[in-house]
Design a protein that fits this description.
Helix content: 55-70%
Order of helices and strands: HHHHH
Family: Belongs to the GASA family.
Organism: Salix koriyanagi
Keywords: Signal
Protein name: EXTENSIN PROLINE-RICH PROTEIN
Number of helices: 5
Structural class: mainly alpha
Radius of gyration: 25 Å
Oligomer: single chain
Number of strands: 0
Strand content: under 5%
Largest sheet: none
Length: about 100
């Protein structure tokens, strides 16, 4: 008689644990906190140094890249292009409508 009771109690506890874990995955409060958290800070100096290493005007490139990096907290990989990796970086423009970020 004690064996079925223990089995029933164990299965009930296990099902409650599974139910709790599945509801935790769909918790809107936690997902909103993750979406509103500030972006991670990156080392803009080294990221821009790598981005501007082949530039014909490295000081100008690093200055513009640093401004964009500080606003967006990201720098696309490689020395040119790859703007899809960092949409914020690609969206910044000058007053003349040209891309601000190298």
């Amino acid at each position: 008689m004690a064996m079925p009771t223990k089995f029933l109690t164990a299965s009930l506890l296990l099902s409650l644990l599974v139910l709790h874990l599945s509801e935790a995955d769909h918790d809107p409060v936690n997902s909103n906190l993750a979406a509103s958290s500030p972006p991670k800070k990156i080392d803009c100096g080294s990221a821009c140094k790598a981005r501007c290493q082949l530039s014909s005007r490295p000081r100008l490139c690093k200055r513009a890249c640093g401004t964009c990096c500080s606003r967006c907290s990201c720098v696309p990989p490689g020395t040119a292009g790859n703007y899809e990796a960092c949409p914020c970086y690609a969206s910044l423009t000058t007053h003349g409508g040209r891309r601000k970020c190298p």
